[in-house]
Amino acid sequence: MIFENTRAFAQQLDSQDSLHKYRDEFYFPKVNDKQVIYFTGNSLGLQPKRTKAYIDEIMDDWANLAVEGHFYAEKPWWDYQERFANPLSTIVGAKPTEVTVMNTLTVNLHLLMVSFYRPTTSRFKIICEEKAFPSDQYMFQSQVDFHGLKPEEVIVEVKRRDGEHNIRTEDVIAKINEVGDELALVLIGGVNYYTGQVFDMETITAAGHKVGAYVGWDLAHAAGNVKLELHNWNVDFAAWCSYKYMNSGPGNASGCFVHEKHHNNPELPRFAGWWGHNKERRFKMEPNFDPIQGADGWQISNLPVLSLAPYLASVEMFAEIGMEVLIEKRDRITAYLAFILGEIDKEVDSSFEIITPLNPAERASQLSVFLHGEGRSLFDYLMKNGVITDWREPNVIRLAPVPLYCSFEDMYNFGQILKRGILEK
């Protein structure tokens, strides 16, 4: 499609957008009494209006049923998480028995590493990407310390080539093959939080398995954003947060995936708790752990249904829409945003360098942009003028045009505000 940097053209794209009506399903903050242009859904998604009803339902059941709500609420609390199995499995490309919801993201990654990072004297190394999200880096270091090993001898980072912003798939494969028989685990972010690069998860997973390692993925920036086929890719495990592209609220519950090939392996350790115990015998208070068959067997504690309620509201919205429709708009609106940046670049002295891959197969709903010739003052201008975006040192802004609630006219308006912010300084 040939784009145009005009309001009329942006409005035309909105009129053709089957998802445009969902914009009204969300609450938008306001700046200067105007609805903001919201580019930080890769950090915290907007609140769906339907969320309140899901929370109120639990509050009413708690008020009217108290403890009996576990069994007699309209959505009984004791199996509340089972309502996620079908919609979540569709979002991440899994079987319903391979997904569950519990805890928060880094907690779940730690728990999954109990099962899938089992270092021996000969096989003990972990491969991750350079500049992984800090929480992952801290997790790796503390896990290695826990096993009495030295992080500098265990953690192997795949680095970017000099002068490049993204990591090449062939370099990941080469590093896996180089570490070879010493490799215990590959654990990488499916989408790099800083650059927005989408990794070739299928190819990397196959390479890790070929040398005998487990392969897991941190899908914080991928779930609800990119096409995933975790079961078919033979991924061992994965976890993701729900508050970015799936709009479940700040710090909310995490989803987990454990491939079915591991479900019946009695030699695979896990930290156990009573909510992962055989559901039919859970309240018999038996002394020996009998795990539920499936990812639910990795649950530990009674689940916080008040936190799960907003997530359920979200996954049911995703089920209405379908990932294919979301991805189609995602690709178009991200391409339009890139076009707008290019057009504004021609009209100002500064220059913009998009460090997210240009290949649509290697990017999703994020463009990370170097603002050459500009500094923090431009970011501050954007924020004061109703563009909610994200600043990363030294001079990068991350822009996430989330297809559920961002419009093409937002992209046009952003370009005009960006231009004014540069010309008026």
From TrEMBL:
Residues engaged in binding pyridoxal 5'-phosphate: 105-106, 133-136, 218, 221, 243, 274, 302
EC nos: 3.7.1.3
Keywords: Hydrolase, Pyridine nucleotide biosynthesis, Pyridoxal phosphate
Known pathway: Cofactor biosynthesis; NAD(+) biosynthesis; quinolinate from L-kynurenine: step 2/3; Amino-acid degradation; L-kynurenine degradation; L-alanine and anthranilate from L-kynurenine: step 1/1
Pfam families according to UniProt: Aminotran_5, KYNU_C
One Gene Ontology MF term: kynureninase activity
Signal sequence residues: none
Subunit comment: Homodimer.
Family label: Belongs to the kynureninase family.
Its job: Catalyzes the cleavage of L-kynurenine (L-Kyn) and L-3-hydroxykynurenine (L-3OHKyn) into anthranilic acid (AA) and 3-hydroxyanthranilic acid (3-OHAA), respectively.
NCBIfam families the record matches: kynureninase (TIGR01814)
Identification of the protein by name: Kynureninase
